[in-house]
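Reading a protein record of the kind used here takes only a little practice. The record below shows the convention in full:
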Amino acid sequence: MAQPARGPFPCARHGLRRKCPPFASRVRRSLAATRLDPLGLAGWRVCLVNLGLVFANRAADDSTTMNDLRIREGQHEDCDSVLALWRLAGVRPSVTDTPERLRLFIEKSGGLLLVAEAAGQRVGTLLGGWDQWRGHIYRLAVHPDYRRRGIARALVGEIERRLRDRGAARIYALTYTEDGAAFWASLPYERTSDTAFVRTFR
């Protein structure tokens, strides 16, 4: 059977004409050797182009998110949405996860509840603490659909600026998941040998 000609080819979805990626023929030959080439070279070309468009569109979405990202101080009207975002993000619940407690934090913390907004919705949160001795970071949460786009790093950068403005020379970040530990390890944070104890009043 004659092989389709190399060169530009159409994208079945978008009607575009693109050049075949140089590795397409290698993919085809490799699959043909194992009798797993039901699409033929032309079919694999279309698949590879569409895959490239998916990644390109995702990169464009990521860029749009960061261009539209706004970090601001949380307000009383954010409380219900922040609590809902924590649940959606899988944050471990506690007895303080109530609108009343969150409103009290907003009133007393002086701008240390941060909310990240993108595409017209709340997509991230972070709580900061300052006890005149060291800074603290809690409840760093990002909407699952907006992760790996730099939102968490942007929130951390803003809370670090605010805590350092208040005099913090060191900042403790609290996490309880492996993903959280990996995130903080990717920044200039080090594991501490401190052991945390907590007492809860109900």
